[in-house]
Every structure is written in C-alpha cells, then in structure tokens.
Amino acid sequence: MHIELCGNGNEIGRAAYLVSDSKSSVMLDYGVKINPEPPQYPLPAKPDAVVLSHAHLDHCGGMPLLYRHGTIPAFMTDVTLDLTKLLVEDALKVGKKQGYNTPFGVAEIKRMVKNAKLVDYGEQFRAGAFSGKLYDAGHIPGSAGVLLKNEKSVFYTGDIQTAESHLLSGCTLPKRADVLVTETTYSYKNHSPRIKEEERLVEHVEEALAREEIALFPVFSIGRAQEVLLILEKYAHKIALDGMAKQASDIIASYGARTKDSRRLKAVLRKINWIHTREDRLKALKRHSIILATAGMLGGGPAIHYLREIKHRTESKVLFTGFLVEESPGRNLIETNIFKNAEEKFHVHCELDKFELSAHTDRRGLFHIIRKTNPATVISVHGERCDDFAKDIEQEFPGIQAIAPRNGDTIRI
Ligand SMILES: [Zn+2]
User: What distance in angstroms lies between residue 54's CA and the mean position of ligand 1's atoms?
Assistant: First the structure.
C-alpha cells in the first residue's frame, strides 16, 4: 500500500491524500487553498472512490474536479453533502465575480451530488478494494475521521477536536491504526482553558453593548457561527446574522442529530435577527448590535461591508474566533490594523481581539490521538509546522516513525 500526498504537505489548504494498493485507489478529501489568491487545487488524480471528511473548502473545495471525466462514488455524511454543495456553488459564484477561471462548473457539482453515498458514523462501507468507516471528528457538524483498511489500516483525522464544545461532543477514535494521517494545525501549542476564553469574549461583548457600539464577529459560516451563537445565547435578540452563515445554520439545524443539543440551537436561531436586505444591514449598524457575518478570515462576504462601515469607530470591536491562516486578510488585519484585499486597503481603528475557541485540537489533544490509535507510522499534514511536529512525535513516542511529506511525495506503508 502507499499514500500519495496530492496537497496539504506542510501547508494548510487543499487537503488530498491518495491511498492505493495494487487493485484500487481512494482519495481522502479534495480541497482548495484559497489564500493567497488565486485558488490552488491539489495535484490531479483519478481515484476509484473519494471519502470526504467534512464541509470546509480546504477539504471539499476541489471535489467537483474529480467529476470532470466520469463518475466515482463519494462517501460522506448527510449534512456534509448539503454543506459541501452550498460551499462549492458559492465558490463558483465567487470565482466568476473575481475573474478566476474555476476549473469546474455546475455539471461537475451535479455529478458529485448524484454520486454521493451517504454513510453514518460507525457504518461500514466499501470504497475500491478497501473497507471504510467514519468516526465523529467533533470539528463541525457531520465531520468525520476516516478509517480505511485492507492489508493495513490507515486512520485519517480530517480536522479533529478531542474536546467538546457547545455545538458538538468531542471526537471518537478507532482502537488502532497502522498509519495515522493527522492534521497538525495547533501542534505547537496548547489552547487556553476554553471557559476563560468564553468569559473574555462575553466581557468584550458586554463592554461594546455598554458603550452602545458594535461587536463585529467575522465568522466561518459552518460550525463557528453556530458555536458563537450558542455562547452568546442570552444576547440572542441583539444578534444580527449575515452572509452564508444563514444558509449553513438552516442546514445544520435541519440535521439536529449531528449536533449536541439541536433544540438549543433552534431556539437561538428563532430569536436572532436575520439580515436579508440593505435596510436590515443599516438597522443592524444603527442598533449597536452584535453582528456575526461571514467570512471568518475576511476573504470576502458581508463581514467586509460591516468592517468598512465601522472602521473609524474606536469604541467598536472586531472579534475573531477562528484560525487565521497566513496571508489571509484577517491575519493581516490583526497583525497590522490594516485591512487589505485585491480591491481595497484601509486602516481599522476599532479594538481588535482574537479568542481561542478552536474547532481543532491542540498539541495535548494530538498526542492523545497518537496514544489512543497507537500507530507504527504518523504522517504529519495540514499545518504550518509539520516538520517540527514529526520530530516531536519521534521524541515523545520512541518506536513510532513520523514523517512530514511534501506535496507529490509517496509514502510506502
Ligand atoms: Zn475544517
């Protein structure tokens, strides 16, 4: 057996790992790297099947490319399919608007949806010559770690969170795997205690409301928007929700079983203000609201509109709650107080802050996953410090071989 890294080697974006034996090959994820622009896709491949871990663009954004010349089964959970469709259709629109030549169209998206095979956590399925099983990854609703087996077993974490949140229970793991392919987003640090971060976030919001100012949260539409809504549920009537987070919240609420407490989420969604028109946006800005708007890294979406409107208000706040990838406008803003994209550049005078409510586990959690799955080989991917983490693993776990491959590398297992 071997694994070819088609993307995500020592970088974050365009996850794509091709697991093959002599009879067949199965792609794990097929994402897109959207920062820096223009988007970059994984290396081309012709697998016999694909398994999708979750609906974030860096994992699913290249999926339609696998349907340019034919059809293959795509295994995923139900909510992952609906959310992926939402994301790739939007990416197509964004591509047109920005003038990128998106290498797929509506026909490929349709073929992907038609060939989706919905599987539940724990349910066994057959992908090529491999048997497969999904494990709840605790990252976003519907997210999954993937176990592929024939002569050897490979467990791919996807994006994973060991700890529980308001929205989700933590991940579940297989008892053992010969090879662990693990994300390493936060391999270099441990998160601050979550409860402290939530208290700090609420304090910021209360301060903004007391000043009769705006608290703007640029949020990822899937997962983070709903988590922040639950943290701020007692202020629900003051919250305005804008951008793709609205459709994503609707889809997630409709798959109640994929969240920890669907009634609680539905109750918050009923109380908040949904932004549909220009007038709604003006009202939200006048009403000193808590505004949740996509995109989480300020790569597009209405969050930029609100930021532009409040940029001179020193008493307003811009609060980030998710990972800000290198070279993203969000990361640049928090480091320099300057917002910059292809079209505009301006100074932001608001108070800026960042909270650790990550949907990715930390260094401690990654070590826990390695201990639990007890692999002979660990492949360190999806991070900015994959090499360092591979060295750390070999030190912490004598006997385990750890590798941080580059895109295009093939690892024999
Ligand atoms: Zn993710």
Answer: 7
Q: Share the mean pLDDT of the chain.
A: 96
| Reported pTM | 0.94
Q: Determine contact, residues 244/319, Cβ cutoff 8 Å.
A: no
Q: What percent of the chain has pLDDT over 70?
A: 100
Which CATH number does the domain 2-188+359-412 belong to among 3.60.15.10, 3.30.70.330, 3.30.559.30, 3.90.25.10? 3.60.15.10
**Span from the CA of 321 to the centroid of ligand 1 (angstroms):** 14
pLDDT tens-digit map of 127-176:
999 999 999 999 999 999 999 999 999 999 999 999 999 999 999 999 99
Closest CA to 152 of 116, 177, 134, 187: 177
CATH code of domain 194-354: 3.40.50.10890
Question: What is the Å distance from ligand 1's center to 312 Cα?
Answer: 33
Give the closest residue to 259 by CA, choosing from 272, 275, 248: 248
Residues with beta carbon < 5 A to ion ligand 1? Answer: 56, 159
Residue 224 Cα, ligand 1 centroid: separation in angstroms? Answer: 10
